[in-house]
Specification:
- This protein is mainly alpha-helical.
- It has 8 helices and no strands.
- The mean pLDDT is 78.
């Protein structure tokens, strides 16, 4: 659902005439990464999960928690990325995303059973995610030509 919403927003933004202007959307994930590094994560997941019905499927609960707690974060990263991609490249990214999501969920389930990994992610996960957000934003700014436009 988050990918579909992001794609529709990005599709509308593709009508902006200057490609470098779309690249300025890369500032969004950079700001999200900086916020995560400085402020940290919110504890909304506990509040959302307490309101869910126990008889709801686990997959649906995970989807609802993801949308409620970090939907804006996902949209903030996906929209700038999707706005920069043409139809063919977008299809490759979405296919890769689907395959890698499956692989990473399986890998995450396995690693999540390892106490050392859990301990490391609890300690460093915030910083890792902040670096990923900032990296995505920088790549978008560079590949779109936004930095070159402003610093030329």
């Amino acid at each position: 659902m988050l990918i579909a919403v992001s794609w529709f927003i990005a599709f509308g933004l593709k009508h902006v005439p200057a490609t470098w202007a779309l690249g300025l959307l890369g500032v969004i994930p950079i700001l999200m990464g900086l916020r995560l590094a400085v402020v940290g994560e919110s504890e909304d997941a506990d509040e959302v999960s307490s309101r869910l019905r126990p008889q709801t499927s686990l997959s649906l609960n995970v989807a609802l928690i993801t949308i409620a707690t970090c939907g804006a974060d996902h949209i903030g990263v996906y929209v700038p990325l999707f706005a920069q991609l043409s139809g063919g490249r977008l299809a490759v990214v979405l296919l890769t995303f689907g395959v890698m999501l499956t692989v990473f969920c399986g890998l995450g389930a396995q690693l999540g059973r390892r106490p050392l990994v859990v301990k490391l992610l609890e300690r460093w996960g915030r910083w890792l995610m902040a670096a990923v957000y900032i990296g995505i934003g920088v790549v978008i700014l560079v590949e779109s030509g936004a930095l070159a436009h402003w610093f030329a």
